[in-house]
Every structure is written in structure tokens, then in C-alpha cells.
């Protein structure tokens, strides 16, 4: 068979580490993921056979930072897919094979140790999967079986999937890792790449045909920066490594995989212009963390070392992995002194734009108000507070240079919503009025607050910024959170799912 690889340039939004085509039709209400490692729960394998129970991720220290118990995640805590769920206000995913689980908001079909390539293909190359004979194709079959339980017709399934965010990957790492540990050369593994990408692309194509319109396809991490890769592949002399100490040969292999994948996704976007096919650039994101480690709170002396591991310069031994007997865990996977390393400190909202402030403080004449109708005096007070706070945080950053101390600009986020209210779906005639309240031009009475007897609630809170005069509506908080993510992560102009 011919591999699905064609030469097309795919534009990448490097500020967001995402490239995508189309637009998001709507905010997802469900989410499914297929793939290895980052979007991967070993839970399916544990439930599948007794042998799965022996896998390291079934035991501590895996999961020690999340409920202090192993959950099948190959980390000390949450994974990327979990943080995506949290950002979208969705529950964490359950593994598909967990019979007692609910799947109202999606399911995870991933299998630990699985490959993109079918095991029969690997067998023709003299490669075997030491963990499972399940591949990405098997996960797709589970996906289809699950669809049959929640929708009866193609139209119904398409409607269901149109509200979902579907992850396909990150997968392909094991297709490289297994041949490496079984003695295959990197040059030979390059010949597998077109077939790996074809397998991934075929699955993406199938989920789109089934009805998915929001699909995220992650690329691979820089394998030459991972302790496993650095340990398994000898670099020879210093020229084999980059300035960060990563192995060039493995990173070039990962980049080749990612370039093939992006080219294939570009063709799929032409074939399915109505679908948002998003390339998630895990490689660039990992490199950004590696190169700016101190600002993220990481120990710069341990960037290429495992937290949970033993032996060698990278604290990794493929025969004594994390979770094995007597393999230690670092003492500080997340914290310092007391001791957070990622701290967000929000400023104050523009108090002069809140119904409570506008009601309690009289502005006198029109000059006391700005062009939005907010009270200048109160807003200046809020700005003074925020400026003092930012100055103090600047000093703290000097004192604790290894800690990410982030100022969350609530003031600017609120102002952005206020000045572009219509584009966020708010009623421009009610921007300074409470949804839940009574009396006066701002629908606020300090003696008859929201929750008091006979104090009414507006019929359309999603069109109001203020909930009770002093606090905001859920809809306002949602948009502000998105704006803050853009600001904190340095992603100006990133599109988000409404």
C-alpha cells in the first residue's frame, strides 16, 4: 500500500502551538480521546486482562499528586486531556472499558503501550509490542461500538459528534520506542513514518465521516529530550546533542513524524473544509517549557532527569522503571518551601463599573463618569490597588526567580468584555445593571440584595455581566477566564470555543 503523504505547506500559529482550519461550530459538550501516553489511560488495559494489573501505572507513585492514588495515568497527577476538560468545565474522562463508569461527557478509548501501526505490520518488521497487541485501529472500533450505544442513525450520531471535541493522539511514540529497544536503527525507523502517519490520518478521516467537526491531533514530543530516549540511544560525542543537552538524532526523527502528520492534516482540511482539524504542537510546547524552565518553576538542574526513576545521568533505567520495587521518587515534584511554584495573583475589577459601586457612590455630574458610564473615582481607586499589587509582585519575582508569579489582570479583562459586549453575547442595554436585584438605574439596592424575599432575577442571565451587583454571572466569568488564559499564556488572539 502507498503511504498517505503529500507535500503541502501547513501554516502553524506558533503563538498558540496550534494550527487549525475552519471554525469551531460550538462549545463541545462531550469529548473522546484515542492515543498513547498523554491522552492515555492505562485503565482500559488493566480492565482488559489480568496481566494489565502488573503495569506500573496501576500502582503508586503514579497518581500520588492526584487523590493520592493511582488512576492509570502515566504521571504523578493529571494529564493534558484532564486540563483540557477542566478548562472546558467538563468532567474528567472515564476509560471506555470501565463498566461502572458514565460517559455522558465522553469516553477515553486509549490503551497504554498501544501503537498507531497494527501489530501484524510491526511483526513483518521483526518488532513486537511487549505490552499489548491493541493498536489505534482497535481503539477506533471501540469508538464505533460506543457510538452504537448512544445514537441509532447516522444523522443522530453526526448531531451528537458535532458537539464533541475529539482527540486522536498523541500516538506514534511507541512505534518508535519499541523498535529502538529491540535493536532497530533510527534509519530503519524513518521508513516506518509514512505508515504511522497513514494509520493516524485514516482514523482522523473516519471520525470525521462519522460526524466529528472538532478534531485535535497532537504531534510527538521531542523524544531526544526525554530521559528514556537519552538513555536508550547513545549520542557518541558532544556534537550529537543540542544546546539543551537533547539528542539531535531523536529530535529530528520526532520532527520528521510531526512534519508528515501536518502535511497529511493539511490534505484532510482540503477534503473536509467544514471541520476544525487542529494540530497540537506538543514538540514546540515542550521546547518552550524546557528553554524557559525557571519561569515555569522547574529546577534547571533536573530538566532532563526523571523525577521517578533510578540510575545513570538521566535517572532512568529501562529495566527498573518507575513503580518498580525500590525505585525512588523525587521529594519535590511540584512544590518548594511551603511551597508553590506557580502562583496566580488577580487584581481587582473596575469597581466603578459594578452596580453596587455605581449605586453606593454618587458621581455628581456627567464628568464623574467615563464613556461607558463607569465611575472614574472608583475605577482610579481599583487601578491604584492593582498598580501597588503589581509592583509588589515584581519584587517577589526578584526574591523567588524560580517561581512563576503571575498577575491576572481582572480589570483589563472586565473592560474588554464591557467594551465589546455584543461580540460576547451580552445585552448592551444592561451592561451596568444587575441580573438579580431590584431598584434604581442599576437594579441594585444594598438593603434588598439578591437572595432576599421578592428580589427578582432576570430571565436571561447569559446576557448580563453582573449577577448581584457585586459579583459576575457565570457567563461573564467564563469569558474572563478565557481572556486571562490568553494573557497569562501569552496567546494574543487565540480563538476559543464558546
Automatic annotation (TrEMBL):
Lineage of producing organism: Eukaryota, Viridiplantae, Streptophyta, Embryophyta, Tracheophyta
InterPro entries, per the entry: GDSL (IPR001087), SGNH_hydro_sf (IPR036514)
The protein's name: Uncharacterized protein
Keywords in alphabetical order: Glycoprotein
Family classification: Belongs to the 'GDSL' lipolytic enzyme family.
